[in-house]
Design goal:
Blueprint (H helix, E strand, L loop, with lengths): L3 E6 L5 H10 L4 E6 L1 H9 L5 E5 H6 L4 E11 L6 E5 L9 E3 L4 H11 L5 E3 L4 H4 L5 E5 H10 L4 E4 H9 L3 E9 H6 L1 H20 L1 H9 L6 H9 L1 E2 L4 H16 L12
Parallel strand pairs: 1-2, 1-3, 6-7, 6-8
Antiparallel strand pairs: 3-10, 4-10, 4-11, 5-8, 5-9
Helix pairs in contact: 1-9, 4-12, 9-10, 10-11
Length: 265
């Protein structure tokens, strides 16, 4: 294959970048949509060449991947779409059912709660799970929908809790390519990096265009989308790099990561 198979997280959080990537319509790129853990696996199994990946998945497999240090998904506080919904306050939570769709969020929750709280896979509906466990971890559009309907008496935003604990941004996903794909098609990878940088600039210059377009594609009103997008960051700058480095250090300290990768300057 001469082009790139590019993964796209199929959720509202990445739409400010994808809106402009779609309009670029580069014939050398074939896009495949999915949720983070599915895209992580597709890259590692050579079904995709490059994707937005869970930051912890990138770190665990960094030896065979190449980081694209031009874009990420991050937040410098509350993010809304990474939530623990619980029957009791988080400090009293003793069991959590965790989403199967996000490796980073599960690791972040382990970092924040420590090793003593058992995690079980979320099976069935969150409502059913909350009859058996104290809390459920949800991400992306599912978390946003649960916030709207008031799923549980308590909810804890993991982005806000991370910021309160560390004072740093939290990087939930990075862009990474298979090393063999990067060597095979360096010009296409460079083109994707340019498009990601351009998408950030285009979004910053006219965020309302993206809000209106997103409201036509996702089941949320424009005012909620507008507020949600304001919480997110897409550039991979020094603050994001520092936040990611700290997250990975803490992930290693709780047994979620063996080796720390070198983050590109």
């Amino acid at each position: 294959m001469s082009g790139l198979r590019v993964g796209r997280i199929a959720a509202l959080n990445m739409y400010p970048l994808y809106h402009h990537l779609e309009r670029a319509a580069d014939p050398a790129m074939t896009f495949v949509d999915g949720l983070p853990t599915a895209l992580n696996a597709a890259v590692l199994e050579n079904r995709l060449d490059v994707s937005a990946m869970s930051s912890i998945a990138y770190a665990r497999h960094a030896a065979s991947l190449r980081l694209l240090p031009v874009a990420c998904i991050a937040a410098a506080g509350a993010v809304d779409s990474i939530q623990v919904f619980s029957r009791v306050p988080l400090a009293r939570v003793r069991t959590v059912a965790v989403t199967p769709h996000s490796a980073t969020s599960v690791t972040l929750l382990r970092v924040l709660l420590g090793p003593g709280v058992p995690f079980v896979p979320l099976e069935g509906t969150p409502e059913d799970a909350l009859r058996q466990v104290d809390g459920v971890l949800l991400i992306a559009d599912e978390a946003l929908s649960a916030l709207r309907r008031g799923l549980a008496p308590y909810h804890t935003d993991l982005g806000a809790l991370w910021r309160a604990r560390t004072g740093l941004p939290m990087v939930f996903a990075v862009w990474a390519a298979r090393e063999d794909s990067a060597r095979r098609a360096p010009e296409h990878l460079a083109s994707l990096a340019r498009l990601l940088a351009e998408a950030q600039l285009r979004y910053a210059s006219d965020p309302e265009e993206v809000v209106v377009a997103a409201a036509g594609r996702f089941p949320f009103p424009a005012e909620e989308i507008r507020a949600y997008f304001r919480r997110l960051r897409y550039g991979f700058g020094p603050g994001e790099r520092a936040g990611l480095a700290r997250f990975l250090e803490l992930a290693r300290s709780v047994g979620e990561l063996r080796d720390l990768p070198r983050l590109a300057a």
